Amino acid sequence: LASVMLLFIFFSYKSSGRLGCCGWLLVVISLIFVTVTFPLTIFCIVNEYERAVIFRLGRIVDKKPKGPGLFFVLPCTDTFTKVDLRTISFDIPPQEILTRDSVTVSVDGVVYFRVQCPISAVANVSNAPSSTRLLAQTTLRNVLGTKNLAELLSDREGISRSMQESLDEATDPWGIRVERVEIKDVKLPHQLQRAMAAEAEASREARAKVIAAEGEMKASRALKEASLVIAESPSALQLRYLQTLSTIATEKNSTIVFPLPIDIMQSFIKG
């Protein structure tokens, strides 16, 4: 009985574009059928995080989703689809990407999105989550193909922001909002890793040599200033001389013999 009623309603709607008298008559009969068989009526419950999009004879009822809570559908004329409104995450499989400077790298990531408009997610795209996954893979390759290796390694936040904007713009007609995109891992070829390690080691050695040279230059300047100060005061030179002898005796634990008194050497120092 339900199948015969559904066929009548379908052909009436297809021929005129509207329900017409016959269609409305069958809808009334369906309501009477539902009322009589009340325990057998299809009742549905959607959770707080879900919405139901109801199709009655191929058209969306009231142009808005139902829920949350309890609602019923006519068993002969209505069909419905549940849509989850929670944030969904998925991993982007590793993609082999050729950067702008002709370096092949393997990059993967993660995308967070949620359904913002249940009607668009059902009516405008066949499978919204699967379509978003495929689009994320192609967007990752397109965005990273315009970057060189240095930008890829140093500017992950900018790349993630660019991917999010591109995905959000593309999925807006589907009723999907892309909340976040993150680059998880960038895998380089082994030969390139060894070359980069050697380059980094050479750079560290060069910086160490530069720092040592700068230290020697500062030390020589300090010694020059100290010599000028000591030259202005002969007593300071004598005290420095005695201090040096004391330090040598302490460290080496040896006996020091003065061949000449220090005063005799003043004439040589002045000369």
Quick rundown:
The chain crosses the membrane at residues 24-46. Residues 41-200 form the Band domain. The protein is of the alpha+beta class.
What radius of gyration results from the CA coordinates?
42 Å
User: What's the total count of β strands?
Assistant: 8
Distance between the termini: 130 Å
- Kindly give the count of domains: 4
Unreliable runs: 1-11, 13-17
Q: Could you give a short account of the major beta sheet?
A: 3 strands, antiparallel
CATH fold-level topology of the largest domain: Tetrahydropterin Synthase, Chain A
The helix tally amounts to 9
**CATH evolutionary superfamily of the largest domain:** Band 7 domain
Tell me the helix content.
40-55%
Mean pLDDT across the residues is 78
The succession of helices and strands, N to C, reads: HHEEEEEEEHHHHEHHH
Description:
The chain is an alpha+beta fold and 271 residues long. The chain has 4 domains: 2-83, no CATH class; 88-188, 2-Layer Sandwich (Tetrahydropterin Synthase, Chain A); 191-229; 233-271. Helix content is 53%, strand content 23%. The chain is built from 9 helices and 8 strands. The protein has helices at 2-16, 20-36, 118-123, 128-144, 149-154, 156-171, 190-232, 234-252, 266-270, and strands at residues 42-46, 50-56, 59-60, 69-73, 78-84, 88-98, 104-115, 176-187. The strands form 3 sheets. The protein has a 3-stranded antiparallel beta sheet with strand order 3-2-5. A hairpin with a 5-residue loop joins strand 6 and strand 7 (104-115). The longest helix is centred in the last third of the chain and has 43 residues, at 190-232. The protein is rod-shaped, with a radius of gyration of 42 Å. Mean pLDDT is 78; it is low at 1-11 and 13-17. Residues 1-17 form the signal peptide. This is Stomatin (EPB72)-like 3a.
